[in-house]
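sorry to bug you again but im stuck and you know this stuff better than me. below you get a single protein, a line of residues and a line of whole numbers that encode the local backbone shape. mainly i need to know what kind of three dimensional shape the backbone takes. anything you notice is useful, everything is just below:

***
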Amino acid sequence: MIKLKDLARQLGLSPTTVSRALNGYPEVNEKTRQRVLETARRLDYRPNASARRLATGRAGAIGAVFPSNRNLLVDPHFVEFLAGIGERLIEDEIDIVLSPTSGDDELASYRRMAGGTRVDAIILSSPVVGDLRVPLLMELGCPFVVHGRTQSDAQHAWLDIDNEGGFRHATKHLLDLGHQRIALINGDSRFSYAVYRERGYRSALEARAIQADPRLMASGTMTDEVGYRATERFLAEAQPPTAIVVGSMMLALGAFRALRSAGLVLGQDVSIIAHDDVFPFLNPDRMVPPMSTTRSPIRAAGTRVAEMAIDLLTGRSPGTLQELWPVDLIIRGSTGPAPGR
């Protein structure tokens, strides 16, 4: 098995320079870094993890806290996101440290993680409005990346999708099909993404001089049952909706079930557009009829967030690591003209 000194001899560089290039130190120029990385790959060099930790002073791990009361480990969004993180971290032999919390002591969990020596950076998921974790980690001086956005003006690294634009586009498409009574089934209103989605929905209606009807709006956890109950309530209105914008495929399955229970045909009597995070086991193309969706690849987001965390550790400024990804609208058979049009 090739050792660091053998790799350095092959490159004609000092072991210190090679070690710094492999570990992303900013003082090594990019041309040298790429030459070291390419040679390491060609010779199948595997750095000794213990030696690397001693040399860099790093833990070789990225941390994440998950509230156990939210059952995130069975949430398909969170599982796909973790898979994306893992795909990137494995390239640099970096581990993921998951720290559970009951939810009541979440900030204490972040303090323990940031104040210890187990992780080099932290990834925050599902930011809420006025999220207290951001100022806490900035105060503690711990590198972190937020998957999503907060309303904080502080310069920190984040990656988000254009939830507002995506839901504005989806609602506008339904309006263009002649729908006037358009309902919204959103995620939990505590979370920033739900705020942006409602904002996009409302702005599309307002652009057509349509007032959003609170009786046609619902929010809650992303479950089949929430989607079913919300749609059941909408259909009981004196003027039920002819279209629904839904925050996830799980919610959409419940909405679809409620329509079938009422004897209604999806795409004819009622149209639906659902947000779809591209799950391998929940394919909108396979539904009958296929589900129209706003699309954003959550696994790819996990990969990019992990890459941004690594960039922070190599000296990138947090303010230069802020990305807003576009959301695609995919039209399929679950949307059609408003009835009677």
Summary: The first strand starts at residue 61 and ends at 67.
